[in-house]
Amino acid sequence: MGKEAKLESENRRLTVSIRDAQNKIMLHSVYPVFQAIVVAIVTIVALLMLIRLILNYVDPNPFGAIGRFEYFLKKRTDRLVSPSANFLAGLGIDTRIAPLVTIFAFCVLGYFFLELLHRTFLTIDGIALSITEGNLVRLIGFSLYGFLGIYSLLIVMRVVFSWFMSWTNPFLRFLRRITDPILEPFRRIIPPVGFIDISPIVVLFLLWFLQITVAGVFLR
């Protein structure tokens, strides 16, 4: 009897694992495609920026083949490099290293974009699984947990991108519109420490605590 009960328990666990895997379609099937695309884009940009960085210091003859290629490359990539160059110029740093800063910026942007997709797809899969099971409690839990996670990520993206993006940048304006409703009340209450605004840290801590609470109540 003990062996039969153990075997039945293992079969039940295997059935649950298969069902969970089948319901994680977005995370296991769609997400890798986006991941490969983002990695490819960041890799191509990094290679172009490294070539431009080298040419900035080589300073080839503008009438030679390398000089003409440098002109072509700069013309095609100026829109990518100009935000980094403006950021460095404002700090009084040599703008020739702007391609290097652009590489780091694209790596950060790629990471946050993939993290946002991962959390979104995980939430969608959790909601789909809850609907399949007819479990209203877990449906509410996954919805709230996913919303809090995505919103926290948007706040982090706003903080990071505000370091090297102009406030007039359309993407940063979008992040401000999305996150201002919760950040502004805390910013009025919490004074800055020196020149550092710590209200996003407080808000992120509260959102993290709410996520733990939601998981403990709805997703056990």
- Give helix % range: over 70%
Number of domains: 2
* Proportion in β-strands: under 5%
Unreliably modeled segments: 13-19
Structural class: mainly alpha
Shape: flat
Write the H/E string, N to C.
HHHHHHH
The biggest beta sheet is recorded as: none
Write structural notes for this entry:
The protein has 220 residues and is mainly α. It has two domains: 82 residues, no CATH class; 86 residues, no CATH class. 84% of the residues lie in helices and 0% in strands. The chain contains seven helices and no strands. It is flat, with a radius of gyration of 24 Å. About 3% of the residues have low confidence.
Secondary-structure map with pairings?
Layout: H1 2-23, H2 25-58, H3 65-91, H4 98-133, H5 136-161, H6 170-189, H7 199-218
Helix pairs in contact: 2-3, 2-4, 3-4, 4-5, 5-6, 5-7, 6-7
